[in-house]
Structure formats: structure tokens, C-alpha cells
Specification:
Among the domains are: about 50-165, Alpha-Beta Plaits (2-Layer Sandwich), CATH 3.30.70; about 435-520, Alpha-Beta Plaits (2-Layer Sandwich), CATH 3.30.70. It has helices spanning about 1-15, 15-35, 50-60, 85-100, 110-115, 140-155, 175-195, 195-220, 230-260, 265-290, 300-320, 320-330, 340-350, 370-380, 385-400, 415-430, 445-460, 490-510, 520-555, 560-585, 605-630, 635-665, 670-705, 715-720, 725-735, 740-754, and strands spanning about 70-75, 105-110, 125-130, 160-165, 365, 365-370, 405, 435-440, 465, 470, 480-485, 515-520, 600. Helix 7 runs antiparallel to helix 8, helix 14 (about 370-380) crosses helix 22 and helix 22 runs antiparallel to helix 23. It contains 26 helices and 13 strands. Helix content is about 65%, strand content about 10%.
Amino acid sequence: MSTLLYRLGRFAYRRRRLVITGWVLILLFAAGAAVTLMRPFAAQNTIPGTESQRSLDVLEARFPTADGAEGRIVLRAADRGTITAGPARQAVSAATAAAAALPGVAAAEDPYGAGAVSADATTAIIALTFTEKQAEDVSAATRDAVEEIAEGARARGLTVELGGDTFVEQPAPFGVGEIAGLVVTLGVLLFVFRSLRASLVPLATALVGVVVGVLLVLAGGRFVTMDSSSLTLATMLGLAVGVDYALFIVSRHRDQVRAGVEPEESAARAVGTAGTAVVFAGATVVIALAALAVVRIPFLTVMGVAAAATVVVAVLVALTLLPALLGVLGSRVAASSIPALRRSADRADGGRGGAGDGVRGGVRGGVRASAGLRWVHAVTRSRWVVLPLGVAALALCALPALDLRLGLPKDRSDTTAVRAQDLVDAGFGPGYTGALIVVVQGPRTMVGPAAEQVAARVADLPEVASVAPPVPNAAGDTVLVKVIPATGPESSRTRDLLDDIRRARDPIAAVTGTRIDVTGSTAVDLDVAAKLASALPVYCLVVMGLAILLLTVVFRSVVVPVKAALGFLLSVLGALGAVVAVFQWGWLSGLIGLDGTGPIVSFLPVLVIGILFGLAMDYEVFLVSRMREEYTRGRPAEEALRVGYGHSAKVVTAAALIMISVFGAFVLSDNGVVKGMGFALAIGVLFDAFVVRMTLVPAVMAILDHRAWWLPRPLHRFLPHIDPEGAKLAHRLDAGPPNTADATSGSAAAMSRE
């Protein structure tokens, strides 16, 4: 592979205009596909085959209603006033009539006739049914017209908000917070390269990759149902890995150019060596995301595939567009036109020891050891102290994960739909819009008595606000019972109530010979959370097994993969513990602008496991493969550890800081789901990169010494030889003097003959 990538890098460098033009055409094609095929986002947090989803399908078939998108106008009287008399009632009636007359509105239900007035007579709900079947298909003109009606009612002294799926605002995938993350990323790149030109290249290629990937994901929305979280995850992950992968290649290229290698040869070598590691690293992320299909939850599979597609684009950009841009810069990539940065780079080069300098820490030959060498020396010298302390610290962070509760947290963003829900909760109770629907099916002579028994039994359960009279369908073979919980959908007590209803229905179903199920949007959400919780251990085992298999092939070692998988488990549990402490318990939640606590969004742990697995393996490969390269060259195990760490520490540190800044920028989002994803991934990368990979890994490797590279003899013959950093290519090219034009052209010719 390294030879193929070497040729690809040289081709992109030489034919840079052709490659850049090709990516412009790809960008235009993706934009055209997105504009032509994209559809509005739609939430679909369902799992086919679950009790709640199955009975919901039955309910929709046997209780046909107006088949259209739904919305609501929620109106509340002024302080100490009622909405059932006087000007307030007149305003509500006028709003109802005006809404019913709008084009695009199939029906507007009178709240007084439908009983949609709160017990304290302060709040009323006008239920709207639109002619369009899906909320995302309701036209902007119709939404604006409803808003005008609401504004008219506000002018008459009422508090009015618009709710329901039709008026849920989709967050923008890119905003001020993400721009702030890019600024921080640029600062990290400037620190690494001391050159504005070199720093802008990874940002430019990452943005191209994200734009192309996101446009393709939008085009894919024509064929699958997709919500905004899929686009946000694709943007978040594509930007982070895009910058990181470019960082690894540009860093290798720039070091080689500063060492005297001709730029074209250097770009080809960088793609052939560091590019090989990028391909493998990208493959691990894609595999981890694609493995989400194992959970068998459609919307989660869509999220994983969307993010994986963006990662694939990021890898392709790094291998083709990046060397083309390096060809545009030429030798200027190694220098800076800004005097302050140029002086900083000169000082850094003057104070940097070689890989072998300072392997025992301290100073050799008057050259000061790098920060990475000093750190690895301190860690390996105190290995028996660092290892238990690091493990104990992560275990302590993981303790809150024992109280992990999955569900659908309440949206606390400042939108009209959220404000409408707050008005409903205050007037009707938090369970009013999250009713549990008991569906009784069976012989006509038995469904009625069974429904009456269920209603009576459920009414006596705790946490039940009210139970509506049973309602039969036209055929008389199905009866539904509407149960209003006393608590909201995000409350653990609602989860307990669902379990209590299902336990109470079993004896009745057995005696009457009926089938009794519980459904409703709340039951669907709770069943999704339960399914994801049960799938979490299985998915974790699949991912960790995959990690051990892949790393055994890469490092030709049994111990290193097991150590990597255990370290990954520590970092994931620590990240989940931190998420529970902040988002569920409320610790330091004010620092990230979190207003209130609740359960963790049900799909977050699975996504965190999948994404962190890919990123953790990235850092493991970039860090440990350099150690193995030094070990195979004949260095003693501990010296190889320190030299390899010294080569990789700075770039891995910068890559981790970039990941943290990109993910951390999404913590500033007003959307609670996006905020949770950003926080979980940022803290997970922090734990995995700096605690596990940069600290625990060298401590464990020092303890194991040469035993870390043990592999049973039969596996030596069975396992394929993979060279993740292209070390063999580098050795072959280094056989001649690479600093001369003749040598570089000769090495290129040699490679072209292979």
C-alpha cells in the first residue's frame, strides 16, 4: 500500500492543477446532488419490532384519523385571568377560525369543544392538522401564516406559542461555536508548524472534505429518513479527522523539507508513509461507525453511515488534494513570511534534540531534550506509581456511569416549540403530551370488559394523573385506553409507570384471551432507550474484539492489542461517567450553559463507544507503531519506547488538542443532544489521548519491556504483514542519499518500476 500511496502522492503533486480541478468538480457535483435530492430532516427514533412500535402501527391502521402533520397553538391568559370567558375567549375563538381558514390547514380543533382547556382555565390548545402528511413538508408560507395568527392573539393580551413537530426548529449544523473551534484549531496548528501557510493547509482540506461529505449526506436524505443529528455528527467528526489526518501528513512533509528533501519527493514520501497510517486510521473509524448496524436500530445505522461517509471523504482529500496543495506551496511550506513565527520556528529547531538525544532524559551533547522525551522519561521511571494512579483516576471518573439512565432528555433550547411545551406542562401537567396508550385487541365480546379492567387497574397505579374512558374502533375488535402520567417523558418515574402497566395487564390478558400492548410516543422513546441499553454491552464487546484483532495484525503482538482495548474501555467508561455527572447529576453544568438535568439521550453511549474506538486506535497506531519501528531496527525495548514516543508525542498531542477543540465547540450549541455529543467526545478524547495513550501506554510498555512484542510462533506465519507507517518504503527510499536531485529522481524511478 505504501508504494501505491507514494505514487499517488507524487502524481497529485505533479498534476496539482488537474487534482484541484477534479475536487472543484466533485464539490459542484455534490452541491447539485444535494440541491436536487435533499429533503427536510425528520426525526425517526423508532425500532421496528418492539411492542410499542408494533402496536402503534396497529393503532394507526384501526383508528384512522386525519392523515396530516400536526401542530398546536398554545394560548395562556394573562396573570390572574381565565381563558374561558370575555376577551380572552373571543381571541381564542378568532384564532381557531382564522387557522381553520388557512390554505394548507386541514382542520383546527376548537379547544372548548374538544376539552383542550386546562383545569385552572388558564390555558387552551388549538390542535392543527395540516394537509401535508409530514411535518417537514408543511410550507414556510403556511407556518408564517400560523405565526401571524399567533401574533394577533398576542396583541390581544394572550401568551401564545407554537408547538408540535411542525414547529420544531432544526439547529444549524455550523455556527459561532464551531467557528470558535476552528480558531482554536488554527492556534494549535500555528504552535506546531510556526507557519501560517502550513497551518492553513489542514484547515482548508478539512473544510473541503466536510463540505463534500455533508452535501453527499444531504443528497442521501432522499433515500433514507434522516434527522439533524446525523448531519451534526458528520460535520463534527469529518472536521476533526480531516484536520488530524492532514496534520500527520503535513508534519511529516514539512520536517522532511526542512531536512533538505526536495519538496516533490517529500510530498510523495509523506503520503506513502504517514498516508498509510492515515488510511488505516480512517478505516478503523469507518469500521467502528459501520458496526453500529450490529445494534439493528435504523436511525442509528443512518447516523453511523453518514459519519463514515464523511470520514471516507476526509481520507481521500488527505491523500489527493493535500499533496496537490503542497505542490502549490512548494518549498514555502517549510518557512514563514511572518517574522515572529519564523523566529519561533528557528528557536524550536535549535532547541530540539534528535530522537535519540535524551533517551535517558536530561541533556546530551548540550542539546535540550524535547518535552515529549522528558515526559516519557518521567513516566517510565515512575511506571509503578503512574500506572495505578492513572487507572484509579479513570475508575473514579467512571463511577457515575453506574447510575447511567437512558431516555429522551427534555429539550431546553429557547424556541417557540419548547416554550409551547412549557406552557402545556404548566397548565395540563408534564404528562399531558406524553400519554401512554393501552391497546386491547381480541374477540369483540372480550375487548370491552378487558379494557374496563385495565382502565380500573391502571387508575390505581401511582404516578397516574388520569385515565380516559375506553374508546373502541369501528370494527369493535380493538379498544384503546389513554393514560396520562403525572410525570414527563424524561422522568424515571414514567419509565416505572410503563413497567407497572405492562405487569398489570398480563393477568387480565391471560384471563380474557386478549392481547394488551402499551404504545404512544413516550412508550416508543422508552423502548428505544431500553433496547439501546441492552445492546450496549454487545456492541462494546464487538468493538473491543475488533480492536484486538486489528491491532494484532498491525503490531504483530498479543499483549499490545489487549492493552489497547483495556485502555479504550477505561477512557470510554471515564467519559460516560463524566457525562452522567454533568448532564444527569448537574455537576458544573452551569459552566457549559446547561439549563436543567435529565436522562442521557439514549443513543449517545453507543455513538461515543463507536467514535472513540476509532479515534483511540488512531492514537494507538500513530504512537505505538513508531515504537515498534525503532524496536525492529534493533534498539532495546525501553529505548525504542522512548525514541518512538519522542518522535510521535508532539503530533499526537496536537491532534488530540484539535479533536478536543472541534468537539468542544459543539458544547456551545443550544441543542441539548448536540451539546451532549460534543461534551462526551471532547472529554473522551481528553481521557484517551492524554491519560491512556500518552501516560498509561508508556508506563505499561516499560513494565512489559520486550514481552510487549511477544507473538506466538504459529501466528507469525498466519498473520499478514501490515506496515501502518510505511516504514519499509522509507527504508527502501533511504537506501540512497535523499538530499540530492539525482537521488530523489532515482528513487522515484525505482518506485515506478516496482
